[in-house]
Structure formats: C-alpha cells, structure tokens
Amino acid sequence: VQLxxxxxxxxxxxxxxxxxxxxxxxxxxxxxMAWLRQAPGKEHTFVAALFANGENTYYADSLKDRFxxxxxxxxxxxxxxxxxxxxxxxxxxxxxxxxxxxxRLASTYEYWGQGTQVTVSS
Length: 122
Description:
The chain contains no helices and eleven strands. By secondary structure, the chain is mostly beta strands. Strands 2, 4, 5, 6, 9, 10 and 11 form a seven-stranded mixed beta sheet that branches. It has a four-stranded antiparallel beta sheet with strand order 1-3-8-7, with no helix packed on it.
C-alpha cells in the first residue's frame, strides 16, 4: 500500500489549495480515507474523513465550512479542497487510510502518506 500526497504549497490568506492523495494497492471502497495535519511542535490532528461508501464525510468542527473531502474512484485519488485559508492552517497535511476504528484519532490509521506542506501567509 502506498499513499502519495501532493498539492501543498505557499498561499496567501484567503486563497485556496487542493491536495491530492493517490492510493496504490488499496481499495477506496473498503477503506476510510482521511486527511490529518500536523503543525510544528504539535500532534497530528484530524481534518476530514470520507467513508468507504463514498458518501459519508466528516470534518473537524472548525474546518467544515471551508474544507471539502472527495474522491475519484477511477483515479483512486482522494482530494482535500481547502478554501479561505488562514495562517493557522499552516501545517504538514497527511492522507491516511483505515478499515475501522474511531476515525478522528490519528492512531486509528494503518497507512499514511508522506505529507505535503501547506504554508499560509498573512
């Protein structure tokens, strides 16, 4: 299994970014997929999850109005659309996958991508 995240970069506050996560050796119809992030000196925190049915989505309360998780089964890719970015969104973003468990916990996830850096300047 390999998760390859991309799409990070530097953006000014208020701008958008879209992250992508290509999943290899993993069936998106079986796994919950998620994005988590880690700011410098802090632990991983939950951002968004998409259940295996492709319909149920969940977000961190503070992000649900600005971030959208989705997937393209044909490309075996999961996306995170981030709008109205804020400096507090600066972090390394990871995609992750799990079959079960409490999806808001980082320790739940079995597979992790390498992370993609997002930097938001004011």
